[in-house]
Amino acid sequence: MDIVLQQLVNGLTLGSVYGLIAIGYTMVYGIIGMINFAHGDVYMVSAYITAIALALLTFFGIESFPIILVGTLFLTVAVTGAYGWVIERIAYRPLRSSSRLSVLISAIGMSLILQNYVQLSQGANQQGVPTLLTGALRFHVGDGFVQITYMKLLILFISILGMGILTYVIQKTKLGRMCRATQQDRKMASILGIDTDKVISTVFVIGAVMAALAGVLVTLDYGAFDFYVGFIIGIKAFTAAVLGGIGSLPGAMLGGLILGLSEALFAGLISSDYKDVFSFSLLVLILIVRPSGLLGKPEVEKV
Amino acid sequence: MSNAVVRKTLISLAVAGVATLAQAEVVIGVAGPHTGAYAAFGEQLWKGAEKAAADINAAGGVNGEMIKLVKADDACEPKQAVSVANRLVDSDGALAVVGHFCSSSSIPASRIYEEAGVIMVTPASTNPTLTDQGLPNVFRVCGRDDQQGDVAASYIVDKLKAQRVAVIHDKDTYGKGLADAMKSTLNAYGVKEVMYEGLTRGEKDFNALITKIRSVDADVVYFGGLHSEAGPLVRQLREQGSKAIFISGDGIVSDEFVSVAGSPKYVDGVLMTFGAPPTSYPSGKKVIKEFRDSGYEPEGYTLYSYTATQVAVAALSNNNLDPIKGAEWLKTHSVDTVMGKKDFDDKGDLTVSDYVMYEWDAQGKYHVVD
């Protein structure tokens, strides 16, 4: 019993990280119908910025954990957001009117550029950051215990907060209305006076900011990263986005949670060798039953 | 028609030109993960070979010709290993190769060197298959995973007296090979592992796997793999409150293991098998001092790489730079190296294996367990 509960805790935290990154895939797809393959590498860049921010803050003699956390979050989110904006500006906007395929190739190119640029500028070695927050909450269940480290609690809290704020922004604010209008019909939205280019840029920044949240949290938790770390987690987050229905914001969060939970439960209860096989089989099954994902809307062909 | 003949002549002239140029120096390839997640090991290989080449050149070179090292980066990827191996033998004209590092790269590359008649001396690939293929040109100056696995298994059974052993591997040639070798010796001692599972290279979250290790109540966790996964694994193991003893092989012998784990306190007490301290041989004193004077600590496989270069050079210099004769010669002659006298058997393995158990301490350093 305690083991199953523990696996649920493991899966929830992993899933919320997938969810945060999946938001970047799903929003970009929703608004311009492209898959941003460089998104996993934006996450990787944010891990490096986290380490740089930590080093900067410790250099200035700041030692209290809350200040370090807020400072790192602020710096990383700002710089990664800028990366998101610049990437859209130089790699995707010039191709706005060309076919989807060219943008896709541009995205793959961007992904390679980011990986190689980080590898050259930061070195190809494994990087690590020291542990800042230790300790855990333990609950006794039967003979054993279920525990959640404070860091994992923080991951859950910040991801829920981040997703909550984002949902509010998209549903209730003027910016959100502009995003939704652009998503529904970009041409009509621009005729009605919405600067769609600006909206698209904003969406890229939002995606990068969410990836940066995940980057800070995961880097502080696991401590280890390298320039290739965005690849696997990017693929998983993309899977989560497709699973939940690409283009749908709640779908990305739900997809992330389902993927995280299914991985943890399968690895924990059956076999970790085949956990990825299981996750992707699940994806195939769901797509057979619901081709547009769990919460996705089927695309209506306009004539 | 005549046009084609002219072109052919030009090409053969150009090839001849390259060949004469190449004769002025002896090209030795240094193949390994010079970039990528395992670049720390590539650096060890390069530093060792670079120093060996510099020392040999300063002493007059190989039969009067200077050694020229060529870096070949395989990033520990089998596909890339094959393409850099082809490049080394075709366009660089290497007579010998020091490398590769990962067994999964060394094995496919070794066939290319065999076809081209080039000597391959790996400082670090320990998977048994490499020399069991029966290729005449392949040598290693490190041990084999079956020997390494034996040492680990007997330590677990005799010294730790552990009964509940969880065996984890990274599904790669080296990691799984090592874990399997350890497991079969363990089973021969009558201890059945309580768990045998693989993890995915490149991932960082192993919490689900660790909860499972906790649930089978393992005393010992044996990991076959490299430090980039071993670090997060041991850290998350401790975070989940497990006190199981963590044992791994020579894939974690790098200072990076500590930084990847996050803090020396997580690696405290971790055990690993590795060859007898390469710095302990009297014949290596001078080289080690020179390394340290230059501000570089020859850790891990650095001296193995130096040794591999010496072995390759000895084979070439005693056989008029003929790699095929050199390979035959190595099987019947011993070579004096910075790591003592080395003898090879018919397969190209060392005749003496010297694996011992090391322990990491709370300062993030490793030393031999008495």
From TrEMBL, chain A:
InterPro entries for the chain: ABC_transp_permease, BCAA_transport_permease
Keyword vocabulary terms for this entry: Amino-acid transport, Cell inner membrane, Cell membrane, Membrane, Transmembrane, Transmembrane helix, Transport
Membrane-spanning ranges: 12-35, 42-62, 68-87, 150-170, 199-219, 225-246, 253-271, 277-296
A molecular function (GO) term: L-leucine transmembrane transporter activity
Compartment annotation: Cell inner membrane
Bilayer topology: Multi-pass membrane protein
This protein's GO CC annotations: plasma membrane
One GO process term, biological-process aspect: L-isoleucine import across plasma membrane
Stored Pfam families: BPD_transp_2 (PF02653)
Protein name according to UniProt: Amino acid/amide ABC transporter membrane protein 1 (HAAT family)
Family, similarity comment: Belongs to the binding-protein-dependent transport system permease family. LivHM subfamily.
Main location as per UniProt: membrane
Keyword Membrane carried by entry: yes
Automatic annotation (TrEMBL), chain B:
Residues annotated as signal peptide: 1-24
Keywords recorded for this protein, A-Z: Amino-acid transport, Signal, Transport
GO BP terms, alphabetized: amino acid transport
Leucine-binding protein domain boundaries: 26-365
Any Pfam family the entry gives: Peripla_BP_6
Family the entry assigns: Belongs to the leucine-binding protein family.
Identification of the protein by name: Amino acid/amide ABC transporter substrate-binding protein (HAAT family)
Species the sequence originates in: Marinomonas rhizomae
Organism phylogeny: Bacteria, Pseudomonadati, Pseudomonadota, Gammaproteobacteria, Oceanospirillales
